[in-house]
């Protein structure tokens, strides 16, 4: 950035953040360093570059930009969102430690905290985040960190960080927030008291359904701990993935704002449909967390969900009639996608367990893209009328 712009906006940081002003004849597009090896000075360990260490120049640029966007000291890009979550937690926890986690979390994260961490000697307690004083009641002397998502995948519930932040600060616990659904455009958890931010960069940050990556943001000392876990567990990203991620970030602001406008249009239309028993979108006054969303988010995002009165069979019939919208398990790109959690992120849970988490049969997650909203609605209308 230049000296004349002391406090660039988020939209400007997305395009220019982390990169110095261009020198004469320097390319406008950031170069891709698609190299495993770099010349290393003889007789010293200083300055060694190796992509598995997270210090390829292409990775370093996007890491600096993400840190600026989240207001963090440092950031690290990893090979996947799941890898980012795993390395972020393993950098905080050791055998004998205890983790408090929201029970409203992505299915892959649920498996990590409920099965894999306990197998490593790290105890985990799942907490209903709406339960009054639930976090405090489940504390142990060995509790070291609190983990949560907001907004929640796939239900779109929005959590109030204030009571959790107060508890974490009081007891010196690390507060880790997965902010994938919100993106820095709508929510920056560190500004609300979080210590660590996680993103599945596969989703909105890249935004084009062609990259798998994750990101962890926090203090420089903590990110170095995460980097060491990344090195050991082999979770470093490929330089080309970092280059595509940096390219995708440049349009994040315009993509998210367009998709958010579209989502509001689609949600309002869905709310008129008698075939649906629920339309879940924080922008609707009927959403249980609408007031929290208004107070904490700078935009309601591009994720919503519907519940069909006819259950799973009706959703299957509906999906087979879609023509524009794609049935696919990811989210956050320019294309509108729909996904059934019962056959993807939550397929390891029983119908009763899914229903208890707000994901009954007939639940459909919708990641609204940047197409013309009238065309998205026309496709949903065609499918519902079948």
The amount of helix comes to 25-40%
Helix count?
A: 14
Strand coverage percent: 15-25%
Overall average pLDDT: 95
- Rg, rounded, reads 21 Å
Low-confidence stretches: none
What does it look like?
With 386 residues, this protein is α/β, with parallel strands linked by helices. The chain has two domains: 10-249, Aspartate Aminotransferase, domain 2 (3-Layer(aba) Sandwich); 253-385, Aspartate Aminotransferase, domain 1 (Alpha-Beta Complex). Helix content is 37%, strand content 15%. It has a seven-stranded mixed sheet with strand order 1-7-6-5-4-2-3, sandwiched between helices. A five-stranded mixed sheet has the order 8-9-12-11-10. Helix 7 links the parallel strand 5 (174-178) and strand 6. Helix 1 packs antiparallel against helix 2 and helix 3 (81-90) packs across helix 8 (220-233). The mean pLDDT is 95.
Write the layout of secondary structure elements.
Elements: H1 10-16, H2 57-70, E1 74-78, H3 81-90, E2 98-102, H4 107-119, E3 123-127, H5 134-137, E4 143-149, H6 161-171, E5 174-178, H7 183-186, E6 196-200, E7 214-218, H8 220-233, H9 239-249, H10 252-270, E8 276-280, H11 290-296, E9 303-308, H12 311-319, E10 326-327, E11 337-339, H13 351-356, E12 363-367, H14 373-385
Parallel strand pairs: 2-3, 2-4, 4-5, 5-6, 10-11
Antiparallel strand pairs: 1-7, 6-7, 8-9, 9-12, 11-12
Helix pairs in contact: 1-2, 2-9, 3-8, 10-14
